[in-house]
Amino acid sequence: MIRISALGxxxxxxxxxGHAADDDLRSAVTRMAKIGSAWSPSFSPDGQExxxxxxxxxxxxxxxxxxxxxxxxxVTSLDDTVSAVSWSPDGAWLAVAAAPxxxxxxxIYLVSPDGMRVERITPGDQASNWLGPWSDxxxxxxxxxxxxxxxxxSPWVHELVRDASRKITTVEGIxxxxxxxxxxxxxxxxxxxxxxxxxxxxxxxxxxxxxxITPHExxxxxxxxxxxxxxxxxxxHNDGRDRMVLGRRSxxxxxxxxxxxxxxxxxxxxxxxxxxxxGDRIALVxxxxxRSELExxxxxxxxxxxxxxxxxxVGSVEFSADGSRLVMRGRSAAxxxxxxxxxxxxxxxxxxxxSPHPGxxxxxxxxxxxxxxxxxxxxxxxxxxxxxxxxxxPAPYVLSFHGGPEGQERPTGRSVYQALLAQGIGVFAxxxxxxxxxxxxxxxxxxxxxxxxxxxxxxxxxxxxxxxxIADEDRLGIMGGSYGxxxxxxxxxxxxxxxxxxxxxxxxxNFETFFAQTEPWMAAISGTEYGDPVxxxxxxxxxxxxxxxxxxxxxxxxxxxxxxxxxxxVEAEQVVASLAARGIPHEYVLFEDEGHGFRKxxxxxxxxxxxxxxxxxxxx
Length: 620
Fold this sequence. Notes:
Strand order of the largest sheet: 1-37-36-35-34-32-33-31-30
Number of helices: 11
Helix content: 10-25%
Shape: globular
Strand content: 35-45%
Structural class: alpha+beta
Distance between the termini: 24 Å
Largest sheet: 9 strands, mixed
């Protein structure tokens, strides 16, 4: 086993690798892995600046930049990785979410915009804490925390005048504050009943009054926000339909009526929306087969205009206070994640940040094509195909499976994909059943017993590549992270002769140990997805690759974070112990200072270098 710490010397770590890959390969992969990212944009109240998170220093921190562009200013220098930032409506504070050791036990800080004052407002222990919204006056900040009950991510409110947090109510599983009502007396609370199903409640700030406002026949998904004038509740939902749409309800009537549909599309799902403070405009982010499309709806006329964007994916969209601008995160397969600003008067789009990509020609990066094919039972699947430039088919290919399992593979700038392509190895990133973005029916096609069909989709993906003459059947690899790591372990145990090499990134292998040792709130909501750990133990055993590891013959690399509380490191240890006992070629890379995923630059580099070396060794 190789233990990796970001505090060690990266060159020493790479030199210690047992692989014989040359320095040119390592140098090329390192350049790809060093491509930076910026995300989580938030306007200052006057719209003159934007706060955001960037990994420019190697560890993600908060930065500020003028809305007109220019050189950014570093705000935080925390030891921990920052995941999100939000500027308070009064301009006095930045709310910052950070993760100690890369784990799930996130902490929330209040940081002055100049970075001179830093106050942690969560306990700093092993409890999980998630950042929520600000109240309209900036006097309160919403949080979710399980500090007093590990099974419940309950809603809390931190009051800045009192400098104290209090719990609103106890909710088993997961809840998030979606919005504060402008009257300051209630919140909009999202409660997860089970993965793929949730509800919205209007809850008084004392927790005494709780009104269910989304009664529905499960499964159904809802997200919402109060309008700034308090007259409307806007809801993105799929109640009574397959695709997500935007609806609204009047809050002026004593009795809640049915949701009025505001915006819908037959060819796309609504994945996010943003309201202007004046309530006259709504930004709509549509998921169209994996690519983002951004529209602005003028409520007075009902007119919707689509904005022309230079990137494929959009997220974290926010209006300036005067409603004249939008700020957002944008990215593509051949463009790093950066912050973009849209002038709504003329639709002009400006890139505010420029994430570093030293030694990497972005124009030379491979852009994927969307392909569709039939699975074992005729269900249409799709995926993103990255063809290695200058390599004749059939070529070596790596299948890459996303996490979730409710995640979605999209044409993002995955540097490890580009690093593999530069070595002449293609990548196919499919969305098997259970993926989001394709409607409610599709995302629920892998629940519990249906997971056996989803597992057969893995084989169907490989067969498609081979039958179409795209991939060499003797040079197929597979990789994935989190649930994607579970897919890897299914592949090497159910289809042991299909893959020539595999990389399992912090994936599950044993549902019994997963339920016993993951975050209690995660276990509480995961029974509907995987199976009830009390009443369906036999199903969970049948779905767990650990019980078939004696069939695995594929050379396998396992990478995991020692501080992972989502998929605990025991999942990796079980795999490595079994492979070692049977003499199967394997390598175990444990990152001592990471949790669920690898966020620090030295660790990202090491992970990707080792991944590419592994596939080059066994596929080329």
